[in-house]
Design brief:
InterPro entries: DEAD/DEAH_box_helicase_dom, Helicase_ATP-bd, Helicase_C-like, P-loop_NTPase, RNA_helicase_DEAD_Q_motif. The protein has about 575 residues and is α/β, with parallel strands linked by helices. The chain is built from 23 helices and 16 strands. Bound molecules: adenosine-5'-triphosphate.
């Protein structure tokens, strides 16, 4: 290990000296109160001067992590979960080799669903490492590394780098980590890990909700459960490898209920088995009860004797109400406005249920820019042009997108977005093709790619949204936007109902995550879902007698918003 990395590692506290969790005082806690080591807090303050106090949720889970507990963490999008996790992991003591002069081991493994999120966490760590008081600054390879699938480079350069300099924190997608494990299990040294974090756990570990055996849809539950058994997913497989001993012990505890007491009576204990495995942290804004139950009762991975559940308290679940019963003035709880646009060949309009927008927007950044200003040619604007090769390629093939819907996005974007917006396409949509179509409409559209694209990475750095000459529309799918934090973002456009037309918990969660890209830390924002206005012949009816109602794409969106206690607001540029 390099001298500077050694120095940073030395600056970290020893495990046995980790300060105890403190009670959260009534005045805002400081990061030092949580037990974070002063050099880490100093680096945090220098790198992120706007971050002054820990959030409520950080004040609860950071001490738990520092004391080695397993954590089940659930709080709303933008509450600082991922950021707090990174800070806590940086603070953990480095796992050193037992051999004299041996290389240190990887201390923490962070599993994330996609490479852009891996890159974002790395970027936060890099900023803090650069700002640390250790001189010269530590080599980044010894502090953190990213391992994501990228052709085979993760198995060549990635593996070489891990062998050469095992990092304090390894961030990767489960597939890439599994590839590497199969190639060379020793490179990861999984048995030496001190912590494992699974961020966006509900995306990485699939579970099926338990259904009443008497109900007709019980069959589909059985089918889905069988499918899951046959294809458990890579994250489960990885955790089964890392926590094989815990799993065995938990199973033994379940099958032989008195085993723990028996061991204690005979002077032995099974707690050693649990504490020699790395602490395990699961995090997400949406952790449904079936997943929670699976993780807690069935998985066998957790140390239930030493575990905390941290659940956000900002928005308690309320009994279901109809849209009219919501008292608020249309401005969402966290300053976010939710709109739904219905698009047909003839027009773009708001859904009927939408209420007028609040007269004064709280966030000055969101004041719409006039169309004249936007469409005026600007000296600095760099129009995003399509590659002629692409034009040739796409010219002969029909677009997979409804042009009216893309046009609605392009128009709304031009009329209202001051700086940066995100367009989320349905899963499996060809992102490049959407970018092409939007550019043909004159939109400065870019594929969201934080890892390989310098322009993309720049979006992680900038602060709040200020009007730009040529606003950017970043284009992505749900799979690549989970957990991302783009400080400039003021608008999110969603093409169609997220996760398909069926309205269930999954659809609602998908909407929550997409919408959660704005409204972070009081920055406000707008979420505009664009759906197709069905022709009368295409509409479906539900229910009987007085309860009979026509189900449209618009009414489905109202249902989703109702579930999350938000009310649709008119997008003011359309009727
Ligand atoms: N204590 C804090 N004070 C102010 N800002 C913070 C604080 N902690 C984190 N942030 C900022 O808040 C933003 C959101 O943080 P983060 O991505 O960790 O949220 P999250 O809860 O993980 O969201 P999601 O559920 O969408 O993944 C980031 O820009 C981060 O820099």
């Amino acid at each position: 290990m390099s001298r500077c990395a050694e120095a940073l590692a030395e600056a970290l506290p020893r495990a046995e000296h980790a300060p105890p969790a403190k009670h959260v005082p009534t005045k805002p806690a400081t990061f030092e109160d949580l037990g974070l080591h002063p050099p880490i807090v100093a680096a945090l303050r220098t790198a992120f001067p706007n971050i002054i106090h820990p959030t409520e949720t950080q004040a609860r889970f950071i001490p738990a992590i520092l004391t080695g507990k397993d954590v089940l963490l659930k709080d709303e999008t933008g509450s600082g979960k991922s950021f707090g996790l990174v800070v806590a992991l940086l603070n953990k003591p480095r796992v050193k080799s037992q051999e004299k002069g041996g290389k240190p081991h990887i201390t923490s493994l962070v599993l994330v669903p996609h490479r852009d999120l891996a890159h974002q966490l790395y970027h936060w760590i890099q900023k803090m490492a650069v700002a640390s008081l250790v001189h010269p600054p530590p080599s980044m390879a010894s502090v953190a590394q990213v391992l994501v699938r990228d052709g085979v480079t993760h198995l060549t350069e990635g593996l070489r780098s891990l062998r050469q300099t095992p990092p304090h924190i390894l961030i990767g997608t489960p597939q890439a980590i599994m590839d590497l494990y199969k190639e060379d299990p020793e490179a990861l040294q999984l048995h030496h890990l001190s912590s494992v974090v699974v961020d966006e756990v509900d995306y990485l570990i699939e579970t099926v909700p338990n259904k009443d055996p008497k109900k007709s849809f019980h069959k589909s539950f059985v089918k889905a459960s069988r499918k899951l058994l046959a294809h458990p997913g890579v994250t489960r497989q990885l955790l089964d490898i890392i926590y094989a001993r815990r799993k065995e012990m938990n199973e033994r505890r379940r099958d032989e209920p008195g085993v723990t007491q028996h061991l204690r009576r005979t002077g032995k204990s099974d707690s050693q088995t649990f504490s020699t495995s790395p602490q395990l942290i699961f995090s997400s804004a949406t952790l449904r009860s079936h997943l929670n139950n699976y993780l807690f009762d069935e998985s066998g991975w957790l140390n239930k004797d030493y575990l905390v559940k941290v659940k956000g308290s900002r928005k308690p679940a309320e009994p279901k109400r109809s849209a009219e019963q919501y008292p608020h003035d249309g401005l969402g709880g966290n300053g976010v406005l939710h709109s739904v646009l219905l698009v047909s060949d003839e027009q773009i309009r708001n859904i009927e249920e939408a209420v007028p927008p609040p007269s004064v927007l709280e966030n000055g950044d969101l004041q719409p820019i006039s169309a004249d200003t936007l469409f005026a040619p600007s000296a600095n604007a760099e129009p995003a042009e399509n590659d002629p090769e692409l034009a040739r390629k796409y010219a002969g093939t029909p677009t997979p997108f409804n042009p009216n819907m893309l046009e609605a996005v392009a128009t709304a974007f031009a009329l209202d977005v001051p700086s940066v917006a995100l367009l989320v396409l349905p899963g499996n949509s060809p992102v490049r093709r959407a970018v092409y179509e939007l550019r043909e409409m004159g939109v400065n559209a870019q594929e969201l790619d934080l890892l390989t694209d310098e322009k993309g990475r720049a979006h992680l750095l900038r602060g709040g949204a200020t009007a730009q000459d040529n606003p950017t529309l970043l284009v992505a799918t749900l799979a690549t936007t989970r957990g991302l934090d783009l400080p400039e973002l003021s608008h999110v456009f969603i093409l169609g109902i997220p996760e398909g037309p069926k309205i269930n918990g999954r659809t609602v969660d998908a909407y929550v995550h997409i919408a959660g890209r704005v409204g972070r830390f009081g920055r406000g924002g707008k979420v505009i879902t664009v759906v197709e206005k069905q022709k009368d012949a295409e509409t479906v009816e539900e229910g009987e007698g007085e309860g009979r109602r026509v189900v449209t794409e618009g009414s489905k969106m109202v249902r989703i918003l109702n579930t999350i206690q938000e009310r649709p607001v008119q997008f003011e540029h359309f009727d």
